[in-house]
Amino acid sequence: MSISTRVATEADLPVLIDLLDAYRVFYKQSTDKGAARLFLEARFRERDSEIFLGEVDGTPVGFVQLYPSFSTVSLRPVFILNDLYVMHSARGLGVGAALLKKTQDFCTSRGYKGLALETAVDNPAQKLYERLGWKKDMGCFHYFWSAP
Question: Which residues form the N-acetyltransferase domain (predicted)?
Fold first, then answer.
């Protein structure tokens, strides 16, 4: 078994649509491959995110998506790791770890300060994050305002 990661391109749109739709369903959203297509096409067109695929023996089974942001305090750019998903059938094989390592290497190669992510309090992937050097921020609260 061979695990690899690579930059996703527009040619990967069909598989990315399926993976993004499965990711959204995992988070209790309704399946909507048409909306997933439009969303991903916009990301490629606007070039406002970085998407990597995780593969097992050349077959895409997961993805990670990064969005650029900035830290005003440190005067450096950061990436927000907004999405990480591995198909259920490929979990436990190391694909998630490979994707996270890819994002860390990508961040370092670009000279960014680091990566930020948010996850559900019951997400078992927390153990993986911590094993790979991620630190839980216990010093601040996360707030979100929803537009009416």
Answer: 3-148
In single-letter form, the type of residue at position 44 comes to F
CATH for 48? 3.40.630.30
CA 103 to CA 120: how far, in whole Å?
20
Determine the Cα–Cα distance for residues 35 and 32; give it in Å rounded to an integer: 5
Question: φ, ψ for residue 106 (rounded to 5)?
Answer: -65, -45
Express each pLDDT in 18-52 by its tens digit. Answer: 999 999 999 999 999 999 999 999 999 999 999 99
Q: In this structure, is residue 30 part of a structural domain?
A: yes
CA-closest candidate to residue 106, choices 146, 49, 59: 49
Q: Is the pTM of this model over 0.90?
A: yes
